[in-house]
Amino acid sequence: MRRDVSRRDFARVVGATAVGASAALVGASTPVAAQAAGTETSRSLAFPDGFLWGTATAAYQVEGAVTEDGRGPSIWDIFSHTPGKVAGNATGDVADDHYHRYKEDVALMKALGVKGYRFSIAWPRVFPDGTGAPNPKGLDFYNRLLDELHAAGIEPYATLYHWDLPQALQDRVGGWESSETSKAFAEYAGYVAERLSDRVKHIFTINEFGAFVELGYRVGVHAPGLTLAPKAFNQTRHNAVLGHGLAVQAIRAHAKPGTKVGLAENMTVCAPVLETPVHVAAAERATRELNAQYLTVILEGKYTEAYLAAAGADAPVFTDAELAAIGSPIDFVGINIYTPVYVRADDSPAGFTVVPHPASFPHMASPWLFVGPEALYWGPRNVSSIWKVGEIYITENGCSSSDVPAADGLVYDTDRIMYLRNYLSQLQRGVSEGVPVRGYFLWSLMDNFEWADGYTNRFGLHYVDYATQKRTPKLSASFYREVIARNRVL
Length: 490
Ligand code: GBH
Known about the structure:
13 strands, binds ligand GBH
């Protein structure tokens, strides 16, 4: 006899939220894994004990409260308030109001069962002018958040720069166009590390050079909205990696012993078109060259010859001391992975070619988010095989879906679950082969301000009704809770 299994079971597991208190819903009932310990049908696709399951957000995308407690303006405040820059002229003024609702949001995480939370610290809360006098009230917010996470048994992973540069630095020195910003970033990093490293054991310097520098200073679709000529632009890239390196040194100088430091980069993930030795080797060559300006120089302490040759007279100007700083040893590499590029071997001097996606290649709600699950296998595998990195985190992975609440108020995001199931299966493949991925942070805990897309693209495990700030777990939240509880893909 047919019955409406999916709808009824889902409603039982997560439905409480739709009608009542949010935090209770996903986690309140006995985890299914506990009931199922003896009846589990499969142990395939299992992760090792202690694998760190987490979720992620970033300050400007969730906090709101942009003028509260002495926070200074960031380049994203100015950019989003400039008409025509963000879809619907949306801003992060309120976003998810996480600044006031962080306790509720930590409860959502606890209900999911995550063991780690990756969040970012807003530089303009801590130094409203970018440099100079710190604003203690700014750091207080993160102290409150850390206390709440600690009480919930969730390990904090803090990112120092997720794109919200103090506007004062943009005005005074041109932001990342100047190495003054690199130095200011290091001062801020040391200041925060000294004060938070009693509880924060993992610090990421910078989130995604490959996004904020390219889109903010070359393409102009992200803050500060510039379209620099190649020479100034390559110098900007250099200043950004220099900022990372100087910050690593400052963190080492000021943090408690044992604090680990790394970065979170959306490296270009190169997947071989065919898994044969010749194409696998080409994908490794491509990984070094297509990440030359960021990850490669950070991990090797020098630019590749091909990068400098291609830049020619537009190459960045730098000193050996700067390269040494950029190449400061780090403890782990974080990789934000959404989509791969496919690479094949060829007879060119570079020894590889990127194969463009055919028009029919499937993507999620965001047109750029092509579905290539094997990115979660090849990304970390390439990093570990090329650079012998021994500790890797997937610092972001997730997707946008159309996410329209059904008549019963719930969001049945089966496409997001399909995406996650396939990506996590490829991650599991790598981990089971010994690729040293220690944890995974799903982007994102909840729908939020998606930069130039405003609120039009939703990446959350929780649906946010922006009119009421009500959070409702999507079906994917149940999926992720079960993955965590069972420590395997399902
Ligand atoms: C990450 O960027 C960010 O770290 C995070 O803040 C963000 O919310 C999340 O992913 C989801 O996007 O529209 O053609 O100009 C991922 C890298 C950079 C990919 C911006 C999409 C825009 C492409 N993203 N890019 S386009």
